[in-house]
Amino acid sequence: MTMRIAITGGGLGGLTLARILHLHGIDAVVYERDAHRAARSQGGMLDLHPETGQLALAEAGLTERFRSEARPEGAEHRVLDPTGRVLVHHTPEPGSFSGRPEIDRRVLRDLLLDSLPDETVAWGHRLTAATPRPGGGFTLTFHDGHRTECDLLVGADGARSVVRPLLTDVTSSHVFTLVEWNISDADHHHPALAELVGAGNLWCVGVNRLLAAQRLGDGNLRVGASLRTAADPDTYRDPGALREVFEGWDPRLTALIDAADGPPVPRGIEAVPTDTRWTNRPGVTLIGDAAHLMPPVGEGANQAMRDAAELARALVASPTDPDAAIRDYEAEMFARIRPVAEMSARVQAMMLSPTAAEDITRFFTVPVESGSNLTPPSPGCPETSGVRHTMPPCQWICSRVRRSVTSRRGWPGTSGCSAARRPSCPTTWRRCGSWRNTASSTSNTCRNTRATHS
Fold this sequence. Notes:
Elements: E1 5-8, H1 12-23, E2 29-31, E3 45-47, H2 53-59, H3 63-69, E4 77-80, E5 86-90, E6 102-104, H4 105-114, E7 121-122, E8 127-132, E9 138-142, E10 147-150, E11 152-155, E12 173-183, H5 186-189, H6 191-197, E13 201-205, E14 209-215, E15 221-227, H7 239-245, H8 251-258, E16 265-271, E17 284-286, H9 289-292, H10 300-317, H11 322-351, H12 356-365, E18 429-432, E19 437-440, E20 449-453
Parallel strand pairs: 1-2, 1-11, 2-7, 4-13, 11-17
Antiparallel strand pairs: 3-6, 4-5, 8-9, 9-10, 12-15, 12-16, 13-14, 14-15, 18-19, 18-20
């Protein structure tokens, strides 16, 4: 009998899982609450990391389509203080896909949806309950009373997952308040703001607050204010309340508030404990935010897609024993996620601290010795030295760390990349071909190189 797989949630993780399973001849149904793909905004843009999001797209056979839609120039990043002074300005190599190219969330979701048979996604199905069946599997109940059954249930249903309570009683807690709005066609209607934001990301960093903007592929700007506050988020539906928060900032920056298309939309951002895990239960598991909700510092979507790739790989390897596949997947996921979640929590706290401007500048530009609480060890980069220097020409980028570290023993997939342990710019750096990341090397032990630079 064919195993009935239900994936609750048609976000990036759920769709990636369905796509990879489809490539291997395994059918699954994605139950999505939205009525159709354009029912609501999908947010801003994200940078896909080689070792997580891009790896998952490679498993899904979608690398070329991703490259045709991604925007390497979107990796441009400016950090300013409240006076408008530029603290950091990173400009990526033109046209290069060797790092973390940006792509609009909507475009990436459409790319995944277009890769699936039409019947894969059941639109307008908001899950309200999942009830275990006596003989195994689950009965799923949706908001309109419709019911269906499945043998394997994958919760990809996000921060407020309905599936999560089947596995753990963990609860999320408030981290900060995020207020978002859009500015349409900035090049024509607000050219000064378009120039301020540039081709990618802008961060304006103050005390316990951050004003950020992204340029989307359609020319619109997605703007967000991150606030360390206990106030009711609905307070900030009034643009006047936002202006008060950023009173005294350079008018060129607060113009981002005045140019909003409509009222700002606030929401509380939450996270689960970084050590969240559960005892395996047959027939059910979680991926993405449902499994490991963390602050949004660039890892959430990437890790969700990596979850999907790992779970799909396990299911393909054990087609007659899905419970063994779930155990294998969860063991890998728990080990991979904890240091990433810890790092995300530290970075988020740094970004909304009283000394955020100084800390972020140092984070981007100053080499940091091992032991700094801003440079966590990285799974996949065993025994990392903690060396970080992200400003060109010394760009040492390693998997799963938001910026960069070096590794004594190399990265998975390379043939032994021995990287420098000292926080100084080497005279030679080489590209480890398997990861397309730049590694500084003090010897010629980094084989499989694609380029060198002296």
